[in-house]
């Protein structure tokens, strides 16, 4: 991305965030504001109730950050979230819900396998 495109993108992000705040205030939504101090190691505490949560931190502009909770999908599981595989997985879960697990008769399975050879 060229420097002028990046500046334009940041400016649009800043405008979008400002619009978001204005809309939330018009709706009567109270946005909780707390004053925090960034520690000497660069850390910011959001409170123990948020411990262990994954977040994204977006730099809107110099000194302005938007922190949002996020869920991250490990790369080796991304294949499950393609439309085709997501549908197959939904079908498999639906089948499993209609057909509860039951104990297997291992002797019967062994006899069946021997007949196929």
Task: Walk me through the topology.
Layout: H1 3-26, E1 55-61, E2 64-69, H2 83-98, H3 106-116
Order of helices and strands: HEEHH
First and last CA, distance: 63 Å
Average of pLDDT:
82
Strand adjacency order, main sheet = 1-2
Q: Give the strand content.
A: 5-15%
What is the gyration radius calculated from CA atoms? 26 Å
SS-based structural class?
Answer: alpha+beta
Regarding quaternary structure, what we see is: single chain
Overall number of domains: 2
Uncertain segments are none
**Count of beta strands:** 2
Total of DSSP H or I helical runs spanning 4+ residues: 3
Task: Describe the structure concisely for a colleague.
By secondary structure, this protein is an alpha+beta fold. The protein is built from three helices and two strands, in the order H-E-E-H-H.
Characterise this structure:
- The chain folds into 2 domains: 52 residues, no CATH class; 42 residues, no CATH class.
- The mean pLDDT is 82.
- The longest helix is centred in the N-terminal third of the chain and has 24 residues.
- A hairpin with a 2-residue loop joins β1 and β2.
- The protein has 117 residues and is an alpha+beta fold.
- The protein has 3 helices and 2 strands; from the N terminus they run αββαα.
- Strands 1-2 form a two-stranded antiparallel ribbon.
């Amino acid at each position: 991305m060229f420097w002028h495109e990046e500046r334009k993108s940041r400016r649009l992000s800043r405008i979008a965030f400002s619009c978001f705040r204005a809309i939330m205030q018009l709706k009567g939504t109270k946005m909780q504001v707390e004053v925090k101090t960034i520690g000497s190691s660069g850390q910011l505490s959001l409170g123990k109730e948020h411990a262990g949560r994954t977040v994204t931190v977006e730099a809107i502009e110099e000194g302005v950050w938007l922190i949002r909770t996020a869920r991250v999908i490990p790369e080796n599981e991304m294949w499950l979230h393609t439309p085709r595989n997501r549908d197959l997985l939904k079908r498999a879960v639906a089948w499993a819900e209609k057909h509860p697990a039951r104990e297997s008769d291992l002797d019967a399975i062994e006899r069946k396998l021997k007949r196929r050879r």
